[in-house]
Here is the input.
Amino acid sequence: MKYVCDMLQIDIPIFQGGMGNISNAQLTSAVSEAGGLGTIGCGSMTPSQVEEIIIQTKKRTSRNFALNIAINVSPYTDELIQLIIKHKIPIVSLSAGNPVPYIAKLHEHDVKVIVLVASVKHAQKAEEAGADILVAEGFEAAGINSNLELTTFTLIPQIVKSVKVPVIAAGGIGDGKGLAAALMLGASGVQIGTRLIATQDAPFHDQYKNSLVNASDTETTIIGRSFGQRRRILKTPYSTKLDELEQAGLTPEQYRELTSEVNHVKGAIEGDLENGFINSGQIAGLINHIPTVEELFKSMMNEALNQIEQTSNDLKGLSYKKD
Ligand SMILES: Cc1cc2nc3c(=O)[nH]c(=O)nc-3n(C[C@H](O)[C@H](O)[C@H](O)COP(=O)(O)O)c2cc1C
Here is the structure.
């Protein structure tokens, strides 16, 4: 845990996950200012749109932040790598595609490379290719999901056992107990997405935030299975429409269009839940208030520490026969 914090020059091992085209300087800088790793997700944004967010983020914080490139989502991966070098962004996370062609070039420029993985094989390949840190994401998570459908609780210990680089747990973490559990499984920290949406620092539509606060444990759904392009979103009028259209038979192109970043922005920024979708992980059911990022992180760290101490005392208090 300390190794990761020292490597990335952050105070606490909590990463913000990339958030596609709804990424912004406000939330990224709030996460970094609160001691975590803020992240600008590039989604399908043009390099000049991303550059503007980088400039705005640098105005708001002098702390480190990362850029996330979802390789198969962005048509501009090479240009974004040039932007990382130009603006001396010290950390990049690569997801949704093959990271291997980019790692050596980023290392030449002293950029630390985080790779998102969803299986042991994938993790080993990323380590072999030179990834500095792995984020292992379970199927509970919001947004684009691996077709393998493995869960965080099973994925983390198996990946931790099979690689030497630090592993960060993503998917289903929303409080200090989740943080403690991830650390107990051998993770060096956590990456969160859903929980950060419902914060005061996230400049998203109130409909989005309130939908998460009001959601129960069963209120997310997976779309895109029939295309091998899974995405976890909140159940809304638009998700029902997508489900029906998928069952009736869409072409892959139609599916891609209906789940494009344009429809993501409609749902998340404009609050239009009839014509746009909102990503959400299964942990939405745990969210019941809208704190600042700083308050959230403080409570997560305190709760994790208390939970670990209390569980340790409980275990020590058991009357089983020790060797
Ligand atoms: C609004 C939103 C957009 C997302 N977009 C991306 C993305 O562009 N790239 C990516 O790697 N992950 C993306 N994710 C996944 C997050 O980065 C993160 O790994 C995930 O949310 C963690 O699981 P959780 O939602 O259970 O916290 C997105 C998540 C959300 C909530």
Observations:
- The chain has two domains: 2-204+289-312, 206-282.
- The longest strand covers residues 65-70.
